[in-house]
Amino acid sequence: MAYTHFIELAEGRQATVDAKFNRTYTRVFLVRTDANSYGPYYAGSHPSLPTILSAYPDDANAFCISLSPVQDQGDPKLWRVTAQYAYNTDMVASNSAPSGNPAVDTQQQGQAPASRVENPLARPRDYSISSNTFPWAVETDRFGNAIQNSAGDPFIPVPEIQRGGATITVGLNSSNSPSAAWIGAIGYLNASSYTVGPYVIGAGLAKLNGVSASLAYENGVSYWRWSLTFEYRPDGWAWVVANKGKRQTDVNNPTGQPVDIVTAAGVPVSNPVYLDAAGYAIAPGGTRTFATFHVYPRVAFPAL
Prior knowledge:
Layout: E1 3-17, E2 23-33, H1 40-43, E3 55-56, E4 59-71, E5 78-86, H2 102-105, E6 126-137, E7 160-174, H3 180-184, E8 189-190, E9 194-196, E10 199-201, E11 206-218, E12 221-232, E13 239-242, E14 244-245, E15 247-248, E16 259-260, E17 273-274, E18 290-293, E19 298-299
Parallel strand pairs: 8-19
Antiparallel strand pairs: 1-2, 2-5, 3-4, 4-5, 6-7, 7-12, 9-10, 11-12, 13-18, 14-17, 15-16
């Protein structure tokens, strides 16, 4: 039970470079065993062969992306092993095929070769970031001038602008399915500062939008592939609304209920007007006020 011969073939070496400056290299080795019964696994495991993600001897930027043992047609003890190298370690080798499971095929993309591991439960987290926008009602322009018609009334409906945030998706592998703490945190904001990959997010700025997980099997390991989706808004999630209405406070009203705001002609106003902090209608040109409500509940997110 042994290898009896190993050599690299000089005529098997070749290289390519394309318009994107991605270089590929090919090396070919001959491996001989002492029995016909040995298969490609044993032939491709010779200790002198390059290992997956090892660097090419003459180019430290190219890494081995595949090993392909092929049995000689005339000599079953002899194997020709082809090693492919590439600058782009995420490219699919010509002699390999995807697993068909996106949860497996998309892992470790973009990570440095030294950080990639075979055991799925030992792999680092995967992160992806995308921007998003949401509508935001405005009643003043960027200079603080009121957006209103020539009569001084605000426009209805109130104009909206788009404000931006980010969606952060975390992929991770675990031997367990998502806990009740994760499921229960969906729709909540982070109660305290929270770290998601390269970001340290202040309290109340990230909302957990979704948790999903599916079973995967790879390299002899059955595990859960999680996906966590956070939405981050740098200005927070508070609901800010103009403090206005058609009624105002009246301390002389024995019922304690607000009363209609009336015009100089004594008729109720047709459009809401701004109120001050005490609930009284402000005079034209007065300082507008806004009310802030924190409507989303907060919870301590489990640690990543």
